[in-house]
TrEMBL record:
Residues 235-248 have a biased composition (Low complexity). This is Type VI secretion system component TssM1 N-terminal domain-containing protein. Residues 224-248 are annotated as: Disordered. The chain crosses the membrane at residues 12-29, 36-56, 76-96, 554-574. The keyword Magnesium does not apply. It comes from Rosistilla carotiformis.
Amino acid sequence: MIALLKASLRQIARIALIAFAPMVAIGHASDRWQRWGVIAIHVVAVLLGIAGLGYIQYTMQLDALVRSSLPMVRLTWLPLVGCLLYAIAWSAWFVAHTLRMPAEKPLSGGIHSAWQESLHRFTAAGIDVARTPLYLVLGSPAGGVRDFFSASHTDLVVLPSAEEADQPIQVCGNRDAIYVCCREASLTGNFTRRAAAARQKYLETMGSEGPTSIHRGPAHVWQAGDGANTPPQSPSFSATAPAAAKPSFSTASDTGALAATATLPTTAASVDPTVNRMHDTFAQIETLTTEEAVATVRPATILQPRTAKLPMMRLEQSEALELLDRLDGLCREIAEIRQPFCPINGVVLMLPLDAADCIETADHVGMRIERDLNTIATATQSSVSAQVIFCDLELCEGGQALLDRFPETQRHRRLGAILPAPPVSEPDAGPAGIDQAVRWICDELFPPLAYRLMTRNLQDAAQDRILRQGNHAIHRVVDTMRQRRDGMSRLLRRSIAATAGNVRLRGCFVAATGAAGATKHAFAEGVIPQILDIQNEVQWLPQRRQRDVWQRRTAAAIYASVAITTCAVLAYLLGWHATN
């Protein structure tokens, strides 16, 4: 009995809430039918209230107290007062709701001025920003976004600002598309910029020690103190020390031959063939012993774990919020310019390939991308597709050797996978497709491609030695891509799968975007057509569509009520004038 009484009281309280505070009840509704039910109950409650006021006026004969020459006003005086109070209540609610709305924050960090300057440049070039496809670019190659467009052979009418200008955003494009590169207006762009600066500083630091000590590692990798942990070498290995200090791919036999030559110099005066054979025999024996010695010394270096990672380049919470506020403000500026069309046509992610070297870095970068994409979806209120480009292949270990042997006539092709759009009915299809695409790139695309580039020259020993070094470098690319598979998959799953379907991954590619000319450019030209193909894969979010439908229906209802009221008043006035 008590439970029934409590349930009845809850229903009465709910009906009272719907009658006196319909917007609160609509906010608690879970679907469209519940919202329509709230509206219907509220309308019925209002009509019953007006009818009750009319009944009170009729029973208490309040029309005798009203001084008016219009009989209809005297008969409906109390219901009219109730309608006026109802309208005043709604007006007060709209005013309070407007006052509670957060004020628009001005764009900080020079984004507003940079965006307005870009608009002037596009207007001067005769390009309509509101109707040209627009893409947001998160991240950049190590040399900047100009390197990517140079590698892709894209003819830009409006060039991006120079890297030295230190602009928070770089806007460039042509009549086919406009690219807004968020250098310091996104967490992803901030990471790639810091990673490139750390890489450059590391290379300069290592380069000051000598050209043989430069190691092309990730920007967030530091070299362990090998000098303190490596055992001292014997004088017989003095010739191999420089080769061990730099990332070389020479074989043990080559190193042993160098050591034997250094310890057993031969002279031109020896003419006795027996002595020559003895020298050759001793050289072979010493080569074998040298190889054994190298085999006993080098495992201390080869079997060590991968180089340790620096602490993540974490941002302070205030700095992260500032970057996200910049991105949110930039998206709103774009949305205002491009009304009534969708603000953006897609997102392009340019990430350094070494961001997937370890799981910790992949998680960190994935978290940054996730927050950027969620901010973009919320600010633009649209669902878009994304393309991921892992840049700086030429900076990875063995990458330049692969590019040197790759045919120049084939470098315009894209290197990666195109992902199908995941169906809405299968929420797990997106992450599964990401894993399958990354596995195909790392395990089935790179190995056959690299093995075709390997070659030997058994007729020329010196040339064959150089070719074998290149083969080892190319094989190192295959090995590192296999090691990056889990990191790439985890990065993409973390960034794309957590956006609740608002961002769809439609492509994953690898490109070389070096700044040293065509020798470091490959696989970027074929990505641009794929980016342009997804420009129509954009739609408003369901919340935005529902809001538009609600606004249209509300406007139609207001116009209809005003028209009906106007017609009724005119008809009444004309009838009253005719009777008098």
